[in-house]
């Protein structure tokens, strides 16, 4: 059976390398990648790349996928730090042995949603705020480019995107 993974991107300002490298690694392993954004209309990366999401966040049913992962970028906090994204990750978190995670700034969104409490995680810290955010929501910060804690995978940023994809594959195979 082919795995199906959901990648969540911002409507504007998602990180190109994180999205395309992660997607490429997953697809090269035969994993079907579905992309969602807040709206089912053209999404734009921070570099101007265009991606037509397969569906809107409001149409996501977590049980339709084998894992859900959020992509970072400068637009992530503005477009993905929402009740809809929190709903998706809460459903993932509440489903036993269900893989989920995020890369770059997006782990902060998961922390705020309460799905990284007591989880070892990493993320982008270019603004020096990651430790404060993680402390606020009970996340255990690890200084590594990619961290897998059980079924949760988090990554630092664009340079870690391919390894993020590889860890997603690893966690899917353990399932």
Would you summarize the structure shown here?
The chain is of the alpha/beta class. The chain contains six helices and twelve strands. Strand 11 and strand 12 form a beta hairpin.
Task: Give the low-pLDDT segments.
Answer: none
Query: What is the succession of H and E elements?
Result: EEHEEEEEHHEHEHEEEH
Total helices: the number is 6
How much helicity do the residues have? 25-40%
Fraction in beta strands = 15-25%
Structural class: alpha/beta
Q: How many individual domains?
A: 1
Strand order of the largest sheet: 6-3-1-7-8-12-11
Query: Could you say what the CATH architecture is?
Result: 3-Layer(aba) Sandwich
Structure summary, number of beta strands: 12
Assembly type of the shown chains? single chain
Radius of gyration: 14 Å
CATH topology: Rossmann fold
The main sheet comes to: 7 strands, mixed
CATH superfamily name? Answer: Class I glutamine amidotransferase (GATase) domain
User: CATH class, anyone?
Assistant: Alpha Beta
What is the first-to-last residue Cα distance? 13 Å
């Amino acid at each position: 059976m082919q795995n199906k993974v959901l990648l969540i991107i911002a409507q504007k300002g998602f990180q190109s390398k994180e999205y395309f490298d992660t997607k490429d690694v997953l697809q090269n392993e035969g994993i079907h990648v579905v992309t969602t954004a807040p709206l089912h209309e053209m999404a734009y990366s921070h570099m101007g790349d265009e991606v037509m999401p397969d569906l809107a966040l409001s149409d996501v049913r977590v049980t339709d996928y084998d894992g859900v992962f959020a992509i970072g970028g400068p637009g992530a906090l503005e477009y993905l730090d929402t009740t809809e994204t929190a709903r998706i990750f809460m459903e993932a978190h509440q489903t036993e042995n269900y893989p989920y995670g995020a890369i770059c700034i997006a782990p902060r969104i998961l922390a705020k949603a309460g799905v990284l409490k007591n989880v070892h995680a990493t993320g982008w810290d270019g603004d020096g705020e990651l430790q404060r955010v993680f402390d606020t929501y009970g996340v255990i910060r690890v200084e590594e480019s990619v961290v897998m804690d059980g079924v949760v995978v988090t990554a630092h940023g664009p340079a870690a995107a391919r390894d993020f994809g590889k860890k997603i594959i690893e966690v899917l195979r353990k399932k």
